[in-house]
Write a structure and sequence with these properties.
Strand content: 35-45%
Order of helices and strands: HEEEEEEEEE
Number of helices: 1
Strand order of the largest sheet: 8-7-3-4-6-1-9
Distance between the termini: 63 Å
Length: 128
Amino acid sequence: MDIIKPKTKVDTKIRNKAKEQSSEKRQVIIHGIIRPMMGASIDLFKDDIFLFPHGYDKKCKLVYSKNIAIYPDKYEIPSLTIHNFTMVFEGLPKDCITFDLIEDIKESGGFVEKNISRNFSDVYEIVF
């Protein structure tokens, strides 16, 4: 028995909209590394850390984090150790070339990394 695959024609507008939405749903992964000389405690202010794509009004929210505490909890790092953590953000605009990671908090010590060059994978390793 032969199987005949039906030919389906999808409207160009629908196809383009689906392609646009799938590319905008991409995520950005930041692998953070902290190497304190003396012990330290770290946390994230989940509602105050964003990616800011250069040339856009949009800011990308944090959607997931691993191996780092969310304020008011703290994660203690012993002296002279290396600590790795991961943050996952909403996707950047498709044609974004550079962006900033900024934790905009009132006290000192927020995570800040400016002028990050975009790569094809949207996976980055940053030493803070």
